[in-house]
């Protein structure tokens, strides 16, 4: 994590230099704002990774002599199948179409999003996937 934090903080410095140069040279507000926002995002991620690296053990990515197999193992639990992302995608697509065609479309998309979000959060608390 320590190396990843350094990479993101270095990227943040680079994007900040590009944002200042672009803002002074192009005098265009949208691109300058986007570059400053990209700087902020890189700085947030870099700070989080650098801050977290001080509190956790160093991983294989921080060891220059590590092998690929040193980082092997279980990465976490992932759902084998789920229909909830499809519901969220349909609801999200309808809500973005609501911005284009009319805000009335939000009345159809918000319930779909809420149903998909509820189903995804509580997917393993009910039915055949319920943990005992």
What layout of secondary structure does this protein have?
Elements lengths: L1 H25 L2 H25 L30 H18 L4 H16 L11
Key phrases:
single chain, 64% helix, 132 residues, mainly alpha
Instruction: Name the overall outline.
Output: flat
Structural class: mainly alpha
Total individual domains: 2
Order of helices and strands: HHHH
| Helical fraction | 55-70%
Give the number of helices: 4
Largest sheet: none
Mean pLDDT: 87
Poorly predicted spans: none
Oligomeric state of the chains present here: single chain
Radius of gyration: 22 Å
Distance between the termini: 35 Å
Q: Bin the strand percentage.
A: under 5%
Number of strands: 0
Task: Summarize the structure in words.
This protein is mainly alpha-helical and 132 residues long. The chain has two domains: 2-61; 84-126. 64% of the residues lie in helices and 0% in strands. Helix 1 (2-26) packs antiparallel against helix 2 and helix 3 packs antiparallel against helix 4. The two termini are 35 Å apart.
In short:
This protein has four helices and no strands. The chain is mainly α and 132 residues long.
């Amino acid at each position: 994590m320590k190396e990843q934090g350094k990479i993101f903080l270095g990227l943040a410095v680079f994007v900040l230099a590009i944002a200042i140069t672009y803002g002074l040279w192009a005098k265009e507000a949208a691109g300058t704002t986007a570059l400053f926002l990209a700087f902020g995002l890189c700085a947030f991620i870099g700070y989080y990774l650098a801050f977290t690296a001080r509190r956790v053990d160093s991983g294989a990515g921080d060891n220059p002599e590590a092998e690929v197999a040193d980082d092997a193992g279980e990465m976490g639990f992932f759902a084998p199948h789920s229909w909830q992302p499809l519901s969220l995608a349909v609801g999200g697509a309808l809500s973005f179409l609501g911005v284009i065609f009319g805000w009335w479309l939000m009345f159809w998309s918000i319930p779909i999003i809420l149903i998909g979000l509820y189903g995804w959060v509580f997917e393993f608390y009910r039915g055949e996937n319920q943990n005992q």
